[in-house]
């Protein structure tokens, strides 16, 4: 019975399937296979039996292996590894001499040395035509410079992740799937770049592992922050718990309750129960009143207490007696005396001394007499002197 072999050409590469053909292969052996780019040596990591009905078509479905690897082939592989290390050092020296903005990651030498692949990373496009000329002149074979991303760089080099284990891309991942920030939001993770990013500086690849489960859970859950009519009354969905498969609800009493998804499906879109109605009725049956207190009636005697206060002995004191009354002129006397001592200023234009005086003009009265006449006129009219209001200080 023929076998289907899963073959890997390097530790971080993909698994390719071949047919065993006439050979009997065990897991862990090395085989020589034909590829589109020439002969290659790989390691068998997986063996499964082909179905009976596909036994005749085994050669058509999978390419057969060329032969099993021997000791001479293993020596060639060791020589190729040594050549790749030397080529890595030489290529790095050439990059420094040409002052190219690129980082060399790894060098791969094919089994038959028909081609050498140099993997590098760079922020943009690099003109490496002179570098290829130096490499072809040194090794006399086909040279390929392949630019890769930071994820593939970490996959080739390997590293320890935030979880303390070897990075998933190095251990078992063979293809990268796109990871977005939306996945971190749906999984209720803290959007801290140091927590949700890996060694490569991109979002963690493990965010995509559980994304399918979160999508199925969110399809079963109601919308967070929305109000629903349930048998418990009007409730608001606060949060959802993926691990417990539960919801946190806020009821009309502002109490938080936690129900499972199955319980939510039973109570949603149902009229309130008798218990919920009784609780709502007990809340609304309490005495009603204004928050600010009862407003006094028009005929209430409390309005007559305006301007009254109590002294230290507890007796009422009428504060309205401290207000100025228009009949009391006791405040006018000191003000009038002050006005008599301080004559009124005349802000009018000063008469010119050089102007000739008319013969019939009366003698000029002194300033003190004019001030007395003004104050006397004001007293005759019965007016109170105007007091200046004090302005509040600016903040």
TrEMBL record:
<feature type="compositionally biased region" description="Basic and acidic residues">
    <location>
        <begin position="336"/>
        <end position="355"/>
    </location>
</feature>
<dbReference type="InterPro" id="IPR007557">
    <property type="entry name" value="PSP1_C"/>
</dbReference>
<dbReference type="Pfam" id="PF04468">
    <property type="entry name" value="PSP1"/>
</dbReference>
<dbReference type="GO" id="GO:0005737">
    <property type="term" value="C:cytoplasm"/>
</dbReference>
<feature type="compositionally biased region" description="Basic residues">
    <location>
        <begin position="380"/>
        <end position="395"/>
    </location>
</feature>
<dbReference type="InterPro" id="IPR047767">
    <property type="entry name" value="PSP1-like"/>
</dbReference>
<protein>
    <submittedName>
        <fullName>Cell fate regulator YaaT (PSP1 superfamily)</fullName>
    </submittedName>
</protein>
<feature type="compositionally biased region" description="Basic and acidic residues">
    <location>
        <begin position="272"/>
        <end position="282"/>
    </location>
</feature>
<feature type="region of interest" description="Disordered">
    <location>
        <begin position="265"/>
        <end position="395"/>
    </location>
</feature>
<feature type="compositionally biased region" description="Basic and acidic residues">
    <location>
        <begin position="297"/>
        <end position="313"/>
    </location>
</feature>
<feature type="domain" description="PSP1 C-terminal">
    <location>
        <begin position="63"/>
        <end position="148"/>
    </location>
</feature>
